[in-house]
Design goal:
This protein has 5 helices and 3 strands. The protein is α+β, with helices and mostly antiparallel strands.
């Protein structure tokens, strides 16, 4: 028995005229098109970004542009310029933070890097075997979580 089936008897297949068939087919087609479109869009975006990086001009913020020779209408939008926008964010360099805070002393380091409790599920079972946790404790801790995924199957 495959993992796509369970031990209960399968309900009858939908009739040939069940509207779910048309809906599912449209979903499957759109999913396939979305995958192909996303891949194509990413390739085109990368090509355009590379062209802007190589040939564009920069503004005072470091963003780069190419002015289009004529407006390009797409739907209700009219494009006149391509922008490769520069974005800056501040991120912590963990190695530098550890080095600097350790150099300032244990108290500074421990405030910057507080211990984070993490659950070791395997250790719970060891504690159960040692008698430090009971089956009732484990029933409270280890709970079932049910989720569903929507998939179309080919076999």
């Amino acid at each position: 028995m495959s993992d796509e089936q369970d031990s209960t008897e399968a309900p009858p297949k939908p009739s040939q005229f069940d509207p779910v068939i048309v809906t599912f087919r449209e979903w499957a087609i759109l999913k396939s098109q979305q995958t192909a479109l996303t891949s194509r869009m990413n390739k085109l975006r990368d090509q355009v970004a590379q062209a802007v990086q190589q040939r564009g001009y920069a503004d005072h913020n470091g963003s780069q542009f190419i002015d289009l020779p004529f407006p390009i209408p797409v739907g209700e939008t009219e494009y006149v310029r391509i922008k490769r926008e520069r974005r800056v964010s501040i991120v912590a360099d963990l190695e530098a933070a550890e080095r600097v805070t350790r150099a300032r002393g244990t108290q500074v380091y421990q405030r910057a890097f507080p211990p984070v409790p993490t659950l070791d599920a395997d250790e719970l079972y060891v504690l159960l075997q040692e008698g430090l946790l009971t089956e009732e404790d484990m029933d409270q801790i280890m709970v079932q979580k049910e989720t569903f995924a929507f998939r179309g199957l080919t076999s």
